[in-house]
Design goal:
Blueprint lengths: L1 E8 L5 E6 L5 E7 L3 E8 L5 E10 L10 E7 L5 E6 L2 E7 L4 E4 L20 H7 L1
Antiparallel strand pairs: 1-6, 2-3, 3-4, 4-5, 6-7, 7-8, 8-9
């Protein structure tokens, strides 16, 4: 596992963190647009094509807004899976081989058609497979 991003931000304030896999083919982007937190999968090799988006939280009901939130973006050893943890809790994971995106809410539906998995809910078992 490689941790590429380890920083803090304030939930509900516009911010973004991006990370590119060690192999350079894929990337991820975390953004808080002031309303919600989202995690995006990107195909860097195809000119920054958006592959999938996962909903992490609503800013008014997400992580504690009264204190800074720690964000970490990690890559699996082979660079084909990425996860995001907020305040030491895994919130989402992309498996670029199986073309799966997983988060606690399992939302949104796969609007881009990239994901091949139907079950999008993040479970401890899925996290253990990669991290």
């Amino acid at each position: 596992m490689t941790t590429d991003v380890d920083s803090t931000f304030q939930v509900g304030q516009e911010t973004a963190f991006d990370s590119i896999a060690p192999g350079g083919q894929y990337g991820v982007l975390f953004e808080d647009d002031g309303i919600e937190g989202l995690f995006h999968a990107i195909d860097v090799g195809s000119g920054q094509q958006l592959l999938d988006t996962l909903h992490l939280y609503d800013a008014d009901r997400g992580p504690d807004r009264t204190r800074p939130c720690r964000v970490r973006i990690m890559w699996s050893a082979n660079g084909l899976a990425a996860a995001i943890a907020l305040n030491e809790n895994y919130y989402a994971l992309f498996d670029f081989v199986a073309r799966g995106g997983y988060c606690h809410s399992g939302k949104p539906d796969n609007g881009t058609g990239w994901a091949r998995v139907r079950q999008r809910s993040l479970t401890p078992e899925i996290v253990r497979m990669f991290f």
